[in-house]
Amino acid sequence: MALSPVLLPRLLPPQTGYRLAGRGLWTSPHLFTVSGDSQLLPLPGQARVVICGGGIVGTSVAYHLAKLGWTDIVLLEQGRLGAGTTRLCAGIVSVAKPISIECKMANYSNTLYEQLEGETGVKTGYVKTGSLCLAQNQDRFISLKRLASRLNIYDCFFVMPEYRKLNLHIFMHFLLSLYFILFLALSHLPSLFLPCSYSGVQILERTTVQQVLVEKGHVMAVETDRGSIECEYFVNCAGQWAYELGQASEMKVSVPLHGCEHFYLLTKPLQEAVPPSTPVVIDMDGRIYARQWHGGFLSGGFEKNPKPIFTEGRNQLEIQNMQEDWDHFEPMLTSLLRRMPSLESAEIHQLVNCPESFTPDMRCLMGETPGVSGYYVLAGMNSSGLAFAGGAGKYLAEWMTYGYPTANVWPLDVKRFGNLQSSRTFLRHRVMEVMPLLYELKVPRWDFQTGRQLRTSPLYDRLDTQGARWMEKHGFERPKYFVPPGKDLLSLDQSKTFYKPDWFDIVGAEVKCCKEAVCVIDMSSFTKFELTSTGDQALELLQHLCANDLDVPVGHIIHTGMLNERGGYENDCSVVRLSKNSFFIVSPTDQQVHCWSWIKKHMPSDPHLHLEDVSWKYTALNLIGPRAMDVLAELSYVSMTPDHFPSMFCKEMSVGYANGIRVMSMTHTGEPGFMLYIPIEYALHVYNEVMSVGQKYGIRNAGYYALRSLRIEKFFAFWGQDLDAFTTPLECGREFRVKFDKDTDFLGREALLQQRQDGVTRRFVMLVLEDHDTELDLWPWWGEPIYRNGQLAGTTTSSAYSYTLERHVCLGFVSPPPGPEGLPTPITPDFINRGDYEVDIAGQRYPAKAKLYPFSSLFTQQKRRKDDLELSNLQGK
């Protein structure tokens, strides 16, 4: 039978005995305790940890916990072990991932799967191949080059082979000869089960978790259809059912994911059997992938119109037996035959419908939930479960054992989401966008289009009518820039490029206004907490949590980090002392759940100490520029000069008719100006008054793109981009914000003292690109490799075009090479100042000047001298 929409019997029958993962892997019962077919093992009355989910993710967690010395581990599976998505997945492990933590997880998984046969004696079916990533257009080619450049950091490589000599059944039409083919380290495992070959793991099949019982905010027990198990920890690895399980628990836990049907085709062996070592073919422009399978091919893809599924009330057997849909698969089949026309005569073996779960941002969910202590999640693998399972299980096991993983997993932390992302409608609409995006061409600063306008400022409609173009952060709409009247709105909305963007001049005008007149930026999305107490409890808590000294006079603003025991940043915030026992805490937008959880975790149980999230109570306006003081002075009839309103100070005052406005002399950019925190009922009035009075001073709206340019040229680090839980104040030049001179203990103090004694081994630097043509060359964005004297020394964390310096500025970390024994080497200012630096953008290296302080003042002086010289030449002097 040739490739055509013909329905055939199921390829993968229900499992029997100890057949795991449906790919021919038979294991011996003595490797671990598991319930068999004839009888169920008795349910234990208690355990240290209960893991729900017997797929590769759940078994990976159990495996790594056992390796770290845990015993009394119980893994529960509602059906048969490895019989869900794990059994049906395509079996591809790719290390080519868009963010570094995903690359690390996939690299570890690759290594683990390769080692398992020797470690356990179990045949895993591991075959190491390569992959061919095809580019049908110039933008895809650039995207692959950028990825290859960044993957060099993880020992991946980029070559241009003579692909026409490869017998891969690939039709090369539409692939222009100048396009490279990317080889990446991939593998596929016909056998997908990760054996828990360590003592202390008990696996119970045909046992359904109904809910998790909680007492005083901590996991107490797990209730199943066969009884209850008392436990200290619970891990939700339920895959498709993770969302429902979280909602069904005694205290609801948000696990924002949604299932979609995912199809792939299996052929019978070709006349000339395809060898197992054949590279995986990935044609993202055609939305398909293909790999060898038993002498034939397995081919699937990520269509533009995915089919979401609901799992409420559906058991594992129903999910396993989801029906083929040839009409739905037809566009991918057409694309496959266009790319590999030799398959037209191949016989079909099966069209498999394999359900996968997807998250709102295409990244998996990992970590301890914010509301319930001891409740962990590892789910939402976005069709990369096999690639991530090994590394993700390792990091989660470390998290549960040590209190933190050994790598920065914030991009995957479940606390990056809140309850606002748990709407079923939101999730259903978002995953219909997310699944196609896996193969979509994503240029820098692209935005999701679904689930928008969920959280908005009271000024949203007003700003929208004035040309605001929006981006979303933690569900909150924020202005990127404002399109002036008369501009081509359509072209700007559709602007997608790796080069100079169409909004370049617009943002430049906003930056210029910030420096010469006054701009207003709506920054209402920032996280805002109030901490109050009847006595000194609030101050004592903040002194323990914060590295900087909070025992300051009322009205003072302190910029500080909240550190962990290792000295790394858990939060980077501004704290205002409103009164003796009241503090106002301002943090980044996406810190709302994480920061709340961190503070609550360390708060004593004291009825006289109160923490409140007031993010929704205040609209925040940032007035930036030298004329900001004139605008506010006219509206408040109060002098706003530095003599009367010093820097980093807060006063509650009237603005226009509105009273009780918290005015702070800070802008988060290093430019002069003020932040206004306005009760929401006054927001529109204050904004209208500011814009009206500001007309005579040249006021205009501005967005976050201008803010980004200003803060980067001032060498300001930002949490979540430049700072994370593994970055210390000493590594980013913030030692002056640490109260070493105070006899006050705080989280991270001992670690920082030790680091100061030993010396830091990496340093946050500012790099200004040279010989880089803004008009013609590719732009840096983030994640680009940094080279020093030709050797890889670090990566960029953020970048922006500086309209002041008229050059691109990159921020990032550099480290010296390891010492003779492979140990980290302390870094010195000479190492930074005497090196020749380059930044690699898509394989092209550009020289850069590295500094430990902002370039602004130096380049401003040089530019002024140049302008003066040009003026004198024009005047004939």
Kindly, what is the distance between the CA atoms of the first and last residues, rounded to a whole number of angstroms? 87 Å
Shape: globular
Taking all Cα atoms into account, the compactness measure Rg is: 29 Å
Low-confidence region ranges? 1-38, 154-162, 176-185, 863-877
What would CATH call the architecture of one domain? Answer: Beta Barrel
Q: What percentage of residues falls in helices of 4 or more residues?
A: 10-25%
Task: Specify the CATH class of one domain.
Answer: Mainly Beta
- If you average the pLDDT, what whole number results? 86
Structural class of the secondary elements? alpha+beta
Strand order of the largest sheet: 3-10-5-4-14-24-23
Description:
By secondary structure, the protein is α+β, with helices and mostly antiparallel strands. The protein has a domain at 761-876: Elongation Factor Tu (Ef-tu), domain 3 (Beta Barrel). The longest helix is centred in the first third of the chain and has 21 residues, at 100-120. The chain is globular and about 85 Å long. The protein starts with 18 loop residues before the first strand and ends with a helix. The model is unreliable at 1-38, 154-162, 176-185 and 863-877 (pLDDT under 50).
